[in-house]
Amino acid sequence: MKAVTWQGKRNISVENVPDPTIQEPTDAIVRITSTAICGSDLHLYEVLGPYMHKGDILGHEPMGIVEEVGSGITNLKVGDRVVIPFNISCGYCFMCTRGLQSQCETTQVHSKGSGASLFGFSELYGSVPGGQAEFLRVPFADYGAVKVGAELPDERYLYLSDILPTAWQGVQYADVPKDGVLTVYGLGPVGQFAARIGRHLGHRVIAVEPVPERREMAKRHGIETLDFTKDTAEELRSMTDGRGPDAIVDAVGMEAHGSPVGAFAQNAVGVLPDKMAQKIMETGGSDRMSVLHSAVDAVRRGGTISLSGVYGGMASPMPLMTMFDKQIQFRMGQCNVRSWTDELLPIVEDPSDPLGVMDLMTHEVSIDEAPEAYKHFQKKTDGTIKVVLKPQGVTL
Ligand SMILES: NC(=O)c1ccc[n+]([C@@H]2O[C@H](COP(=O)([O-])OP(=O)(O)OC[C@H]3O[C@@H](n4cnc5c(N)ncnc54)[C@H](O)[C@@H]3O)[C@@H](O)[C@H]2O)c1
Ligand SMILES: [Zn+2]
Ligand SMILES: [Zn+2]
User: Fold this and answer.
1) Ligand 1 within 6 A of 308 CB?
2) Where is the secretion signal located (predicted)?
3) 3-class state of residue 217 by DSSP
4) 300 in ligand 1 pocket by Cβ < 6 Å?
5) How many C-beta atoms surround the C-beta of residue 312 within 10 A?
6) Which one in 36, 119, 221, 301 has a CA-CA gap of 20 to 30 Å to 59?
7) How far is the CA of 40 from the centre of ligand 2 (A)?
8) pTM of the entire structure?
9) How many Å lie between the centroid of ligand 2 and the Cα of residue 90?
10) Which CATH architecture has domain 164-332?
11) What is the spatial distance between Cα 367 and Cα 388, in angstroms, rounded to a whole number?
């Protein structure tokens, strides 16, 4: 089959690889009809390269049709249409039964001290072959495949694999009070949804994003927007009675613009051999911190900061004095996708499309065009906001 593979920093290619097969009775094989590129793939493309191996199959936002099931599968049958959450979770362990599927104890990556295994996500998360491919092996498929209806287009359902529950969890964790103001940093796909969810739940939302077309998209959904500058925190205070927003979602993460120290560290790490680079990331500070520091400055006293954006350095500097003095609450983590999908399913199927899932994708391309699409998504050129790859061909 064809698959999108990692070959080196900013170097991916589409290769012919063996088709996946059933390895455990609880596996299913899914024929992928749509599979998106995520901001997290950009971290693998760039900063997390030391944890990738040549030939690793990327992708963790897939959906498709069940092609084959293992002998232990009871919930699925061949021909079912399914969305695959990016966490691989068993559904029955201590963590899964408490809604913490991203910490699943059955699939945790003990060798790296990491949480649940993830599709297509480097050695840090189990080096599991990903979903930017014609077929995907899905472990624990009875739990890890979300059955969806047969009628609506893939775009309605696809984002349940990751970014919609991620944004939902981000806003839940932000704990915005009634009549409160939510600020979202970053209007990539995750931030677009976090901002729209804030509006859907009745909050005023101010989003911060340097890329003009991403701000334009957000404005279509009733969101106030700002460019990111060194004065962002001050501007946010001036828009919120001098106090700052009640809650902030950081939907940017470790590659924020405007962070010269972190950018230097990331570039320096990028030229080292993998083992040395891993050591530095596991002991040093290699995140770009401009957004997180701006959020600490901007949030009102007693407010909450919720991190959806991924951070990776072990000793990235944080202004603890301000965090303590302002009494800031923090929540963060990979999304527990299966905790939210049942609640989100009727929302994405609602004919009025309350979260605008049909207004996110900017590019739908064949799998062969993935290398070009990654470039545009990373550089934010060609108006790219969300790319969906079609491994079975583009139908339009
Ligand atoms: N927690 C999870 O489970 C989870 C799931 C999916 C994605 N993520 C993470 O969420 C983040 C966003 O993902 P995405 O798919 O939306 O990717 P993306 O890269 O398209 O989005 C990041 C956005 O942040 C903007 N940005 C950069 N610097 C900024 C700054 N200084 N101020 C404001 N905005 C700035 C970029 O222009 C871009 O629009 C990534 O870190 C990704 O890894 C986390
Ligand atoms: Zn993702
Ligand atoms: Zn589990």
Assistant:
1) yes
2) none
3) helix
4) no
5) 18
6) 221
7) 5
8) 0.95
9) 20
10) 3-Layer(aba) Sandwich (3.40)
11) 9
Rounded-to-integer distance, Cα 98 and Cα 355, Å? 27
Q: What is the CATH number of domain 2-162+335-390?
A: 3.90.180.10
Which of the listed residues 40, 117, 341 should we mutate to test ligand 1's pocket, taking the one with most ligand atoms within 8 A of CB? Answer: 40
Gap between the Cα atoms of 172 and 182, Å rounded: 11
Domains of the chain by residue range: 2-162+335-390, 164-332
Helix axes 163-174, 189-200, angle to 10 degrees: 50
What pLDDT sits at residue 281? 65
Higher pLDDT: 164 or 279? It is 164
pLDDT of residue 318: 92
Question: Which one has a higher pLDDT value, 369 or 274?
Answer: 369
H/E stretch holding 266 = helix 260-270
Decide: 336 in ligand 1 pocket, CB within 6 A.
Answer: no
Q: Is the pLDDT of residue 375 over 90?
A: yes
Q: Which of 51, 252, 335, 379 gets mutated to test ligand 1 (max ligand atoms within 8 A of its CB)?
A: 252
- What is the average pLDDT across 356-361? 98
Residue 360 makes CB contacts below 8 A (sequence gap 6+) with 155, 159, 189, 192, 193, 217, 385, 386
Closest protein CA for atom 19 of ligand 1? 39
